Amino acid sequence: MKKALVVLAVVIVAVFSWFTYLSLDADQRDQSAAEVPLITVMEILHASDLQEGVKQAVKNNNAEQVDSWMEQAREVGQAAKLSSEDMDYLASETAKDYVVFNAKRQLYNEAFEARYYALEDVESLKAQYPEAKDLFPRTDALIEKRDAIIQQIAVAISGSEQPDDAALQEARKQWLAKSSK
Description:
It is a single chain. Helix content is about 80%, strand content about 0%. The protein is mainly alpha-helical and about 180 residues long. The model has no long low-confidence stretch (mean pLDDT about 85).
């Protein structure tokens, strides 16, 4: 009988220990989950207000304003309880370079779109924004398609496969009139 009581006591202690372990493990997982930041570094750097602010600062060539936006990004990171590594990244020149790079690409896209519809040259724009060099082939293709559409309009106006300068001028006017609406 004593042996049965000893075995029963060992089993009860083992079961109690197992449940205690599971309870502590669950508590540790809950605490770890609570430490996960609510936002990531990339979400902060891609926030629309930060991107728009940095874009305007870059457009105005205002480095102090870029620094101010990066300070706000760090404040958001602190409020979100980002890790020290993430906070170090937000404070780095690399993060600043990243948002400035993206801002210049956005500025290129906006300027390209305006020049595209206005039938203006984009070569100076390419020189101004080398950060967008991977976009140049795509923008060149868009310009070729635009010019082909204008050529088709000129062919329709002139009724000839080889439209004259007057037909091309009229086709450009129609393009500009349509794109300004």
